[in-house]
Amino acid sequence: MDMQFVYDALGENAWSYIGATFVVLWFMVWLYRDSLEIENIAEKHVFVTGCDTGFGNLLCQNLERKGFHVLAGCLTEKGADDLKKAAGPHLKTVLLDVTNQDSIQKAMEWTQKEVGDKGLWGIVNNAGRALPMGPSEWMKVEDYHSILKVNMNGCIAMTTIFLPLIKKARGRIVNVASVLGRVAANGGGYCISKFAVESFSDCLRRDINCFGINVCIIEPGFFKTAVTSLEPLEKELHRLWNQLSPEVQASYGDKYLDKYIKVQRLIMNAICDTDISKVTGCMEHALTAAHPRTRYSPGWDAKLIWIPLSYMPSCVVDIGLKLVLPRPSKSV
Question: Transmembrane ranges (predicted)?
Fold first, then answer.
């Protein structure tokens, strides 16, 4: 037997063993580092927006149980009252409209009194809306603005106004984007707003990291919440269709609206996850971990469909979506 061949084989096996060992050790170190938590949770305050229902509501209850002082921004009196009944003594609510600068300013001044000299440990920009959503040609300018002023402008305004309090605590900013901030799968302002949240968060993280502030992005897949409810979605699609001119309606065909709604039903029923704790768990980790991650992508569809799809060439994404969505009767 050729001894050189034996030495080469042994060398290759040795390097493979070393490489595999390095990967395993790196993963174990990452898991350990990822599991480390901050101290003195009972002394820290967290502000959460959009707490009437859904992610924000559950997150506030969980954070309060962990020992945080939770400051919950609710849009309605009923939402605030229901949340206070469900939570403990360390949760306080304030009425907040993230589209209104005066409302945000008042919430910040109220928060400043609550946190005192300690500053604000975390802010979770969770408030958002998804409708109107549909084919881009069906939208009017005001339809885009109605979403952008909540999801994009609201996130930016809250962060900017509350930043001095976060800076004082060297705390956390957690912005809720979406997998649709990676892949623009439908028309309307939702995808646009979530792409903007991604970009804003990336810029902000790089700008203020030197002050010891972490900026984390949550990119949920599809979950069953008020945002993904089919009834209001279908109602909005009918409204958008009815405001189109007869010429535009004719270019899509009489059956297009029904086909589009059927596709939305199929997607929502097949993909939407009922366990919203997968999302709030990521938010909690971003606030409690000693070394929070830059991005979190809760949901099986996020990990297996949307995130991989976001790295594909545009032509692949275009073909995939074309196979799912119906075609207008007079399309070229």
Answer: 14-32
**Tens digits of per-residue pLDDT, 93-112?**
999 999 999 999 999 999 99
Do 11 and 109 sit in the same domain of this protein? no
Residues 28 and 100 in one domain: no
- Residue 297 belongs to what domain range? 40-222+277-322
Q: Write out residues in the chain with pLDDT < 50, as ranges.
A: none
Residues 66 and 87 both lie in one domain:
yes
Q: Whole-model pTM? A: 0.88
Count of domains in the chain?
A: 2
Q: CB within 8 A of 9, min separation 6: which ones?
A: none
Query: Closest by alpha carbon to 45, among 61, 65, 73, 64?
Result: 64
Residues 6+ away with beta carbon under 8 Å from 90: 64, 67, 68, 69, 70
Annotated active-site residue 190? The verdict is yes
Catalytic position from the list 190, 256, 260, 296? 190
Which CATH number does the domain housing residue 116 bear? 3.40.50.720
**143 and 204 co-located in one domain:** yes
Give the pLDDT of residue 9.
54
Q: Are strands 69-74 and 295-296 parallel, antiparallel or unpaired?
A: unpaired
* Pick from 290, 192, 221: nearest CA to 55: 221
In this structure, the answer to whether residues 5 and 95 fall within a common structural domain is no
d(CA 294, CA 303): 16
Q: Write out the two tokens for 157.
A: 């305004």
**Residue 129 CA: distances (Å) to CA of 11, 26, 172, 193:** 58, 40, 23, 10
